[in-house]
Specification:
Elements: H1 11-32, H2 39-44, H3 51-62, H4 65-68, H5 70-78, H6 84-87, H7 89-107, H8 112-119, H9 122-156, H10 160-210, H11 214-227, H12 231-244, H13 269-281, H14 285-292, H15 297-313, H16 315-318, H17 320-328, H18 337-344, H19 347-355, H20 360-396, H21 402-427, H22 434-458, H23 464-487, H24 497-518, H25 525-528, H26 537-541, H27 552-569
Helix pairs in contact: 1-10, 1-20, 3-10, 3-14, 3-15, 3-20, 5-17, 7-13, 7-15, 7-27, 8-9, 9-10, 9-20, 9-21, 9-22, 10-11, 10-17, 10-20, 10-21, 11-17, 13-22, 13-24, 14-20, 15-27, 20-21, 22-23, 22-24, 23-24
Length: 577
């Protein structure tokens, strides 16, 4: 990358960033004022969030610096295929909107582990709660604070350790102070800043490449240069193919890739949807919590619909900058491969140095900090909620009153920030790109829980024994696959985490079915019948809107078609090698 990774700021940049922090503080203060009075206000925002706040904060909790920085770096190396991680979410969103949200809202639960207890048993609740806390800290907090630290380091010149600590402290304040209400409303506010700030970087990159032809010509130039048919780009593509063991004619402009592709092999796409995507978008407490705080079922559903439309456009700020970087600097991929992968995470900083004038640099810093703050706040709030309701209240203090619950939640929030900072410091020593780090861990943790969740909704005979078999056996299978791949030469399709997620998911489903056949049911049919999808058509039909303009079905079809169109456009049909 560039020799210096420091981005100088002017007076206007400081004014813009300072203004953002001031407005964020005002929003956080008033949204969180009085929220510590009782547990429902603190943990669920009094169940009064409107759809637009749910949608905006859903996106900002979902997209943070590990995507803004990590996906850019992954795209720089691999091409447009990383956009699939945004577009395939459409299918999971539909599952969430039409099948799961009705049960979440109707049951008036506080956490996802609590839902699993109602379906299976307290054991499953406690196991899932423990893994939720671990994943929140080890995966989401660590990755967000690490990439946030990289960004702050580039703007301030402070050492990385100090930047990570400062990022963690500044980002966790509003979650500790105002609970979910502060988290949701600050997330809604920062969604606009994040989208506008990152869009400015992409747009200037297109203008740089398009010259007098402007943005449209710049987009065409990005596509042409990423085909890499000649020049330095072709040399860089040859180096990529060699290090990835890719087949000849590797197409950087196709989301459909060969079975050994490190991130999006075609063989693993279905399993990514029903395992990693289900885990991340449906079972993930820090994503789901704002839905649990919705005013009613329609607001909950429409919030996710609005997020679905934003997901179609997110590659403009998460993926297209990576293609722009390759178009501008394919020579960065001609050197040592290990160094290139690590340096790819600095691609956003490189583009900011080269493209952004004074003023817009401050806006980008605001966008990055907003993304960090939103995700960290969401993770902190959700982790404290799980610790409070699923572990503290059910194990340590079953008679805890409202005041004790809130007090424990505040202390749990502080502990989460501290542990997240520690894990982020550990991540600084991990090799490879940060996006790959996140997805690899997700692919290990997600499949067993996604398997028991889906089976539990669809099959009445699934029970706690089957769930235990699925979880324990699924993780053993995951460990076995890692050991086998490390000590034996396996086919190329064996190694991508998406394919391994599919193998773990399949084994988990089988183990759940077999274990349920041999195990004793903890709950009778009468106790779980209201949770089974096929038994509750009345619940499924509620909250869909009564006019065409507020129809959940119509607008859901809209974002689905847009996602399918985007995937078709970059399927390899229009840009063959």
């Amino acid at each position: 990358m560039t020799n210096s990774l420091f981005i100088s700021l002017g007076t206007l940049d400081y004014i813009i960033f300072g203004g953002f922090i001031l407005l964020l503080s005002v929003v956080g203060f008033f949204a969180g004022k009085g929220e510590q009075d009782n547990s429902e206000e603190y943990f669920l925002a009094g169940r009064k969030l409107p759809w637009y706040v749910i949608g905006g904060s859903f996106i900002t909790a979902n997209i943070s610096t590990e995507q803004l920085i990590g996906m850019l770096g992954a795209t720089f190396i691999l091409g447009i295929s990383t956009a699939l991680w945004e577009w395939i979410n459409a299918f999971t969103f539909l599952f969430l909107i039409f099948l799961f949200i009705p049960f979440l809202v109707a049951s008036k639960i506080v956490t996802i582990p609590q839902f699993l207890e109602r379906r299976f048993s307290p054991r499953i609740r406690h196991i899932f709660a423990a893994f939720t806390v671990i994943a929140n800290i080890v995966i989401f907090m660590a990755a967000t604070l690490y990439t946030g630290g990289l960004a702050l380091n580039a703007f301030t010149g402070w050492d990385l350790t100090s930047c990570i600590i400062a990022t963690g402290v500044m980002s966790g304040i509003w979650a500790i102070y105002g609970g979910l209400s502060a988290v949701a409303w600050t997330g809604f506010f920062t969604a606009f800043v994040m989208l506008f700030g990152m869009s400015a970087l992409t747009t200037l990159g297109l203008i740089e490449l398009g010259g007098e032809g402007g943005i449209i010509n710049g987009f065409s130039e990005v596509l042409r240069l990423n085909r890499a048919v000649d020049g330095v780009g072709h040399e860089a593509l040859a180096n990529i193919q060699n290090n990835l063991n890719a087949p000849d004619g590797y197409n950087r402009l196709s989301v459909i890739q060969w079975s050994g592709h490190p991130q999006t092999p075609w063989t693993g796409l279905f399993f990514v949807i029903i395992s990693i995507s289900i885990w991340y978008n449906v079972l993930n407490q820090f994503i789901i919590q704002r839905i649990l705080g919705a005013k009613n079922l329609w607001h909950a559903r429409m919030g996710v619909v609005s997020a679905g439309f934003v997901k179609v456009l997110l590659p403009y700020i998460t993926v297209l900058p990576g293609l722009i970087l390759f178009a501008l600097h394919p020579e960065f991929l001609l050197g040592d491969w290990d160094v290139a992968q690590k340096e790819a995470d600095k691609g956003l900083i490189t583009l900011a140095q080269e493209l952004l004038p004074i003023g817009l640099r401050g806006l980008l810093l605001a966008a990055l900090f907003g993304a960090i703050q939103s995700t960290v706040s969401a993770v902190v709030n959700s982790t404290s909620t799980v610790l409070t309701f699923d572990l503290y209240k059910t194990i340590l203090n079953k008679e805890a009153n409202d005041t004790q619950l809130v007090k424990f939640g505040v202390n749990a929030s502080i502990a989460t920030v501290v542990l997240g900072i520690i894990m982020a410091l550990v991540v600084t020593q991990v090799g490879g790109g940060i996006f790959e780090y996140v997805q690899t861990l997700n692919a290990f943790i997600a499949p067993p829980f996604a398997a028991i969740f889906v089976i539990g909704l669809l099959w009445k005979n699934a029970n706690s024994t089957g769930a235990i078999w699925s979880i324990s056996g699924g993780f053993l299978v995951g460990i076995f696959l890692k050991v086998l791949g490390a000590y034996m030469a396996m086919p190329e399709w064996f190694y991508p985490f998406a394919n391994q997620a599919g193998m773990i998911w399949g084994a988990s489903v089988l183990l759940c079915i077999v274990g349920s056949k041999y195990g004793k049911n903890d709950k009778s049919y009468e106790q779980i019948k209201d949770i089974l999808v096929m038994n509750n058509s009345k619940v499924l039909k509620a909250g869909l809107g009564d006019k065409w303009y507020n129809s959940v079905i119509l607008w859901s079809l809209g974002f689905l078609l847009l996602n399918l169109a985007a995937m078709t456009f970059f399927s390899g049909l229009f840009f063959p090698t």
